[in-house]
Amino acid sequence: MIKRPIIIDTDPGIDDAVALAIALFNETLDVRLITTVNGNVSLDKVTYNMLRLMKFFDKHVPVAKGASTPLIVEPVDASDIHGETGMDGYEFEEPDEGMLLDDHAVIAMYKEIMNSEQKITLVPIGPLTNIALLFRMYPEVKDKIEEIILMGGSTSRGNASVMAEFNIYADPEAAKIVFSSGVPIVMAGLDVGLKALVYPEDSEILKDMNDTGHMIYHLFKKYRGGSFNKGLKMYDSCAVAYLLQPDLFETVDTFVDVELNGELTKGTTVVDLKGYLKKASNVKVCIDVDADRFKQWLMENLKKCK
Ligand code: BDR
Ligand code: CA
User: Is 166 in the pocket of ligand 1 (CB under 6 A)?
Assistant: First the structure.
């Protein structure tokens, strides 16, 4: 079986940790590289978290450190959701710094993509700064990317501002570069992320499922993406779920742009569901998810972890 080669760009992040666990232990995926980006917390913190996860999972995928700030806007963070460390709630062992490549994330992605025989799928689950820099510095990579399956955006309201979702809000200019890149994009945004919930009874099962489930249970106790009792939002796992099980989602092909100038709406994904702008479709937008099947999928996949 030929495994599907992917690069994950991430800012762990508690829901990132869940998505990473599923991807790293999936037998059909070949995770070639993981790149980190400033987002939920600072670049140093998310990179440290990524290395802590890698050690915990006992995996040896190279990790490259990327952008420490957005392209233009000032950094915002989500430590109110993920805790001061970005992954509060579990005592990880000290990580192995040797997993960190000397290359910057953009250079590491460029090398991996250009040297690969198969086209690579990018799975960004944080702000899009690294991917935008990659496209600006090395536009030739675009032809060697199968598709981008990203977590970000919304067809309606936001979670970082009235209208904007966090990953797009955190670096709107980068998002605009990526959405207008011409590379096929799947957008798994808030329309599905808000419905991709894990409930207390699921968390209780995770607690004793395996080491990963136990670790995630403790992160969930601190995670404020939703509430432990009413449902925790597995935003980033939606991108990995689309990658592995696209029939969980209802999608629409349409034109998407990013608002950069709105006084109240900067960072909003403008999803032209009714064709007002008369532009060709550039994004497959996930507009709905079968929440029960998603949850079942998530639990089954976490069972495959260490
Ligand atoms: C996104 O924002 C982050 O806090 C999560 O990790 C996810 O990538 C959800 O809006
Ligand atoms: Ca994330």
Answer: yes
